[in-house]
Amino acid sequence: MIQYEQLHHVALVVTDLGRAKDFYGKVLGLQEMPRPNFPFDGAWYRIGDTGQQLHLIVHNGETLRSGSLDTRDGHLALRVHSYRQTVAWLEQCGVPYEARPRPTAGFPQIYVLDPDRNVIELNASDPDT
């Protein structure tokens, strides 16, 4: 049997590294970290303080999504401290989102698309915080 310790990283394809770094660094507030000198562009980000990471990989091909936000599509989910503050921040940044303060999942969710149409779920433990 495989024994897991934790999720190490998730990799997402992006087409424009500068635009992606603005979104993940400035809008989502993730901390960029050193990245090996691969023969292709990308960026790595820390998620929290437990060693989990997000890797962005520049690829000039097409992304999978062309339509509107579909919350049943594959996505990256990040737990946020405050649901209300996250909604307020997204509004301040002008980022369209779909908010679900009391969904069937049992925890509040906010869905956004990054500039390359990757689906990102931001969720919290309480919709009133």
TrEMBL record:
<feature type="domain" description="VOC">
    <location>
        <begin position="6"/>
        <end position="125"/>
    </location>
</feature>
<dbReference type="InterPro" id="IPR004360">
    <property type="entry name" value="Glyas_Fos-R_dOase_dom"/>
</dbReference>
<dbReference type="InterPro" id="IPR029068">
    <property type="entry name" value="Glyas_Bleomycin-R_OHBP_Dase"/>
</dbReference>
<dbReference type="InterPro" id="IPR018146">
    <property type="entry name" value="Glyoxalase_1_CS"/>
</dbReference>
<protein>
    <submittedName>
        <fullName>Glyoxalase</fullName>
    </submittedName>
</protein>
<keyword id="KW-0479">Metal-binding</keyword>
<dbReference type="InterPro" id="IPR050383">
    <property type="entry name" value="GlyoxalaseI/FosfomycinResist"/>
</dbReference>
<dbReference type="InterPro" id="IPR037523">
    <property type="entry name" value="VOC_core"/>
</dbReference>
<dbReference type="Pfam" id="PF00903">
    <property type="entry name" value="Glyoxalase"/>
</dbReference>
